[in-house]
Design the sequence.
């Protein structure tokens, strides 16, 4: 009976590593966005032995893993029993630009995913996007903009662009372009709205052809993050944003 209870606690799931931090001399805390459980905190040993099934070198930002995990409903911290790469993302790990992007996006996902239930469509979107980033050869400077903007589709507040024309205002609060200045402070002027509309035309296949000056790129990411704050509760400032902004100066 005891063995059956142990088996019932074990689950297999894919997971996307968000953050790893030392917990003690022998253990680390790993924050993972999983396909089956949403965002989960795991405890893992720091052992480097040949027999270990949880190699700590796997836990870098946006690493996608196949996991066997132990879950108990009343626990806040769970255990990883086994971990192996779902696919290898060596370019993200060793390319300093892609690595910086991955750190920023891992922090972003961590803040967005903290309150949402498991979402297979969102998980697959993130997983597929990580593959794109790893293989990407051009358009890297726009990748995070496209990723964040299109992720709002899976969260229920992707903007409505159907009626956009030059000179319109974008209403951040209601997620739509309008002909008049909204009666609240959460809107973009016509120039910034035009950049927002430009961003909505980008995807991973064409983003290399959109050239944004540094100030426009800073402005648009700040506006997109403001848009998220209006539509998600308790969405904080991102500590890694400054590093990313300087990267594409």
Sequence:
């Amino acid at each position: 009976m005891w063995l059956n209870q142990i088996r019932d606690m074990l689950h297999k799931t894919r997971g996307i590593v968000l953050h790893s931090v030392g917990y003690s001399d022998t253990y680390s805390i790993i924050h993972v966005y999983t396909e089956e459980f949403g965002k989960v905190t795991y405890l893992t040993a720091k052992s480097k032995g040949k027999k270990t099934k949880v190699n700590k070198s796997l836990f870098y930002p946006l690493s996608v893993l196949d996991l066997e995990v132990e879950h108990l409903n009343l626990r806040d911290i769970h255990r990883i029993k086994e971990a192996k790469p779902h696919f290898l993302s060596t370019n993200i790990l060793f390319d300093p630009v892609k690595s910086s992007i991955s750190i920023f996006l891992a922090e972003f996902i961590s803040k967005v995913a903290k309150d949402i239930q498991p979402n297979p469509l969102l998980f697959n979107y993130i997983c597929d996007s990580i593959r794109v980033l790893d293989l990407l050869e051009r358009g890297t400077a726009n990748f995070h903009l496209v990723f964040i903007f299109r992720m709002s589709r899976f969260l229920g507040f992707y903007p409505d662009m159907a009626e956009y024309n030059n000179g319109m205002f974008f209403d951040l609060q209601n997620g739509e372009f309008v002909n008049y200045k909204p009666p609240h402070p959460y809107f973009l002027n016509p120039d910034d709205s035009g950049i927002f509309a430009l961003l909505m035309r980008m995807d991973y296949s064409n983003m290399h052809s959109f050239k944004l000056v540094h100030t426009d790129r800073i402005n648009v990411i700040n506006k997109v993050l403001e848009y998220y704050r209006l539509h998600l509760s308790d969405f904080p400032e991102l500590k890694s944003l400054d590093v990313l902004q300087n990267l594409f100066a």
Summary: The mean pLDDT is 88.
